[in-house]
Amino acid sequence: MSKHICRCEEVSEDEIRQAIADGATTVTGVKRRTGACMGLCQGRTCRRLIVGLIAAETGQNPAEIETSSVRPPVRPVTVEALLSPAGDTAGCKGREEDK
Amino acid sequence: MSERTADVIIIGGGVIGASIAYYLTKLGVKPVLLERGDICAGTSGACDKAISMQSKNPGLHLDLALESSAMFPGLGEELGADLDYHRYGGMIAIENERQMAIMEKFVERQKNHGLPVEILSGDEARKRQPAFAPSVIAATYSPADAEVSPLKLTFAFARAARRGGADIRTGAEVRGLLTNAGRVEGVVTQAGEVRAGVVVNAAGVFAPAVGRMAGLELPIKPRRGQIIVTEPMPPMVHGEIWSARYIVAKYNPEMIRSEDPEAADLGVGLAAGQTAEGTLLIGGTREFVGYDTAVTPEATAAVLRHAVSILPFLAKVHVIRTFAGLRPYTPDGMPILGPVDGLEGFVMAAGHEGDGIALAPITGKMLAAYIAGAETDKRLRDLALSRFQQAK
Ligand SMILES: Cc1cc2nc3c(=O)[nH]c(=O)nc-3n(C[C@H](O)[C@H](O)[C@H](O)COP(=O)(O)OP(=O)(O)OC[C@H]3O[C@@H](n4cnc5c(N)ncnc54)[C@H](O)[C@@H]3O)c2cc1C
Ligand code: FES
Question: Domains of chain B by range and CATH?
Fold first, then answer.
């Protein structure tokens, strides 16, 4: 068994290599094929590792690989806190630090 | 300049293009599928998972959905992939007498069309769905509603098509159509021409841009839907849940206005279900905002307000992500399928609004049979573009 690249969703390195062989050239492509990056941390832990694997397998420059877009909230936030539009700032703050 | 020939070209690698490609290979036709991004890069990669019968208008719409639904059991095995397909049934929560009156009529017509569906009292409904709020006065229940992973379904169609000999190309953008004397003869891509006597427009919300390449006006418009994703949790929601307001928002959003004007503007209705991973998908909106796929805090708040009124436990749950997709809307809510008068060889396969996942198998099967010349489903006449052209 190869090691888990995405710990939240338990996606292995082999599965990510298979997704790249299937045509994924971006983090979003890997995400849609494997579910990686869709877990609680929303790819904060695994995104970089996936970029590295795509670069290694396809020969792309890591800096040019499209990472999946980060959609609010950047950190888990309760439904209650989002019930009024103003409450959303709780989830939107820290967007910069995520980059 | 590279030039190639094929029997059939399919433009678009969403669930519809991939399904047509697969069913063509089953009939021995090996199409070229051209997708400008990646498989699932469009709406099929940003949507919900319902194979919903209850949300369909009784008539041709429901007939097609029922036929498509009957193709799902066994499809995973046929395609050699786990599709997360389950038939857990679905419920529509009713919150007041006015909705009750609308739903009673809707359910009666659906029953007459052969859909197994009934209306349960509030207490009976809560027995099935303990998470429903006490304010839910009644709910419909149908065992016919099911669910499937749209991503797994689309990739499985594309892979099975490829194994069957289809040439599936990603990063291949169609920029022009080759036509001659009222016939389509192929397409122009950024990498050169591909010639074929049949060109299928399965470009989803971008189908109008493809149509314009041949001077065709297609009445398809993007209708945005925003969805909220929660943290994973043990089973809390059984099968698919909608609110009666969702049905109203789908077919007649103006009727919501007296209850909640903001919700009417955003077309808010509840569609909720739990994924195999345990996360809840909570939708959604129906908004005409062009091709903008942004998520907005106003819509997130409006959807969640409505969701909590029906599923109060949600208040304490964590949201981990939001996303938005564009439904390919048509004025009558039905897809535009089949041949186009005056442009021989051009085949339409777009405009499935919020039903493209559910309708993908039947769409692929009907169009493949038509293209391969095996049989022309009579219903294609009612689904043709000409229904809009005549109305003018
Ligand atoms: C929020 C939301 C929730 C939904 N929930 C459900 C649901 O629960 N159940 C259900 O059945 N349906 C649902 N739907 C509807 C469903 O997602 C769509 O009907 C379906 O995905 C449409 O598939 P498609 O293949 O027509 O379009 P797409 O998936 O958009 O595919 C079209 C493809 O064509 C490509 N393309 C465009 N132009 C070109 C070009 N010039 N050259 C090459 N390629 C091109 C695009 O890149 C795209 O990949 C939902 C939709 C949304 C937005
Ligand atoms: S490690 Fe991949 S989503 Fe958290």
Answer: 4-46+151-220+332-391 (3.50.50.60), 90-143+221-329 (3.30.9.10)
- Rounded to a whole number of angstroms, the distance from the CA of B262 to the nearest CA of chain A is 12
Full set of structural domains in chain A with CATH? 4-64 (1.10.10.1100), 71-99 (no CATH)
> Within 13 Å of residue B339, how many CA atoms lie on the same side as its CB?
19
Confidence at residue B256, expressed as pLDDT on a 0 to 100 scale: 78
Across the interface, do A79 and B45 touch by the CB < 8 Å criterion?
A: no
d(CA A71, CA A3): 27
- Mean of pLDDT over chain B: 95
Among B295, B305, B321, beta carbon nearest to A42: B321
Which residues make Cβ contacts (< 8 Å) with residue B101, sequence separation at least 6?
A: none
Predicted TM-score (pTM) of the model is: 0.95
| Closest CB to A88 among B170, B300, B315 | B300
pLDDT given for residue B9 in this prediction: 98
Provide, as residue numbers in chain A, all residues whose Cβ is less than 8 Å from the Cβ of B301: 82-85, 87-88
Within a 10 A sphere around the Cβ of B316, how many other Cβ atoms?
A: 10
Q: How far is the CA of B94 from the centre of ligand 2 (A)?
A: 38
Q: A78: helix, coil or strand?
A: strand
Provide ipTM, 2 decimals.
0.90
